[in-house]
Automatic annotation (TrEMBL):
CDD domains: Precorrin_3B_C17_MT
InterPro entries registered for this protein in UniProt: 4pyrrol_Mease, 4pyrrol_Methylase_sf, 4pyrrole_Mease_sub1, 4pyrrole_Mease_sub2, Cbl_synth_CobJ/CibH_dom, NO2/SO3_Rdtase_4Fe4S_dom, NO2/SO3_Rdtase_4Fe4S_sf, NO2/SO3_Rdtase_FeS/sirohaem_BS
SUPFAM superfamilies: Nitrite and sulphite reductase 4Fe-4S domain-like, Tetrapyrrole methylase
Residue intervals of the Nitrite/sulphite reductase 4Fe-4S domain: 416-531
Gene3D superfamilies, A to Z: Cobalt-precorrin-4 Transmethylase, Domain 1, Methyltransferase, Cobalt-precorrin-4 Transmethylase, Domain 2, Sulfite Reductase Hemoprotein, domain 1
Pfam family name, one: NIR_SIR
Protein name: Precorrin-3B C(17)-methyltransferase
Pathway where it operates: Cofactor biosynthesis; adenosylcobalamin biosynthesis
UniProt keywords, alphabetically: 4Fe-4S, Cobalamin biosynthesis, Iron, Iron-sulfur, Metal-binding, Methyltransferase, S-adenosyl-L-methionine, Transferase
Organism of provenance: Lysinibacillus piscis
Lineage: Bacteria, Bacillati, Bacillota, Bacilli, Bacillales
Coiled-coil residue spans: none
Amino acid sequence: MTQKGKIFVVGFGPGDFKHITTRAVEALQQSDMIIGYKTYVELIQDLVNAKSIVSTGMTEEVSRAQEAVRQAEAGSIVSVISSGDAGVYGMAGLVYEVLIEQGWTEATGVAVEVVPGISAINSCASLLGAPIMHDACTISLSDHLTPWNLIAKRVEAAAMADFVIALYNPKSGRRTRQIVEAQRILLEYRSPDTPVGLVKSAYRERQEITMTTLAEMLEHDIGMLTTVVIGNSSTFFYDNKMITPRGYQRKYTLGEEKQPLRPHQRLREENEPWALNQQTGQARDDFATDPNANRIQSTVAIKPKPKKTALEMATAALTMIKGATTEVKVTPKLVQQKIESIFELAVSPGVANKFFTPQQMMTLAEVVGEAGTMEYTPEHQIHLKIPTTEPEVITEKLRAVGFLLAPIGDVLNLKACDFCYGEKADSIPYAEEIQAKLGGLALPKTLNIGFNGCGMACYRAVFDDIGIVYRKQKFDVFIGAKPVGRTAHAGQPVVEGLEPEQLISFITNIVEEYKANAHPNERLFKYFKRVKKILHFTYQDMSSKIEIEPAPCGD
Ligand code: SAH
């Protein structure tokens, strides 16, 4: 019996020598023969000493694999090469299939070693930033060996399940429709703004990187050497990088060195409410969409375009058969899943009203449902988080029972006292007007306006970013309180006895100046301390005590 040879199936990575593994180079250098597609053999020929190189055309994979087996059986060491990883749409499977056809087993046949390489999904991802990071899949759009209907089904399933998708073989000279069809399917489940990265010839001479969106990707050059990376519903662009967050921000504060959860607390059940419960085998449905839904304070849910499902078509057909008058109802076993977002908002019964009606409480319970949460906040609001595809339906129901709605985040909030009696109520319309004009305004940082109906200021307006106190039919205004921390202090009294008709424009001017000039995340007191002037008022250090006119309640 002749000496048995060996087959290396070598993935040489994206194409440059720096990204080929040491084992791959060893394999190529030990080989008597290198077999591969012409362009690839040329890419690596400076690395090899082989006496014979068999380079064949693109479509002759089967003959390449057969030749490799023949040569190895005749005693040669042969490397069959693939770009990227030989096990990803490469030669590894085919070599095994040809061997199996001949009754090969590891014990009796030639030695086979598959040498792994960096596949296009990884090399292209590295050039785009970090788009893979979470559950991802590869789909080849080549239908030369795979029925198109199966490919389309996989694209749809991956789109529906919110996978990051790397499309291999997206387009060639003759196959141009596949990528158009794939885009159409993806748009049924993903937002047109979904980030998409196109990488052509990664780590090769003519490398090109393009950042685009699902809606616009076809306006760019896509070819045989392009990998198309489609983001999931939480992928974003930042500084020309495509990033898919992993979910760390759920447990970690990424801008702080000190973490709110200590290491031993991180795996506790209550800190992972989205995890599979080990006792019940159930997981909460409100986290079922994307890993970062809670992070994104989305007011817009991604709604798939309406599509006739097989169920709807079957229902329509049954209705036709039974006669147009009797509508047939079929209970779906498997309902097509829509992608939900967590809709967050704050509600309160009104600016000056602290009473909830039973009807309001019932509506809250109804819209929040089993899957949502309600949390009472120090701002006298109830913060709602509701998984939904239709936020408008929720806001409509809440408004219909008289709730005041406010967005969450860095916005202007107005918190008023309940104007306990009598003349204090005269100031309510001013509070309502400020709310109507400025409530919910997006700002560099949260800004709370405290509005109190008498000099007692028992709702602690002077400790809000802007404090407004109604006293003797006029207003006192305080700005720049430091509401939190050990060095918390009251605001600086900037105006006493402001005429009511001047109040709204006065407050508006302060807010506008802050909005236009403050740094992102700079709270009003920090801004005042930094610039030393708001309108024509000069900053005073309020850590020292400041005497103001005593003002008994009701005075
Ligand atoms: N075995 C290879 C894939 C071969 S299929 C691997 O693991 O990467 C061929 C497809 O791979 C191409 O159509 C393209 O989509 C992708 N591809 C391979 N090399 C690439 C590169 N250098 N840059 C971008 N895409 C590449």
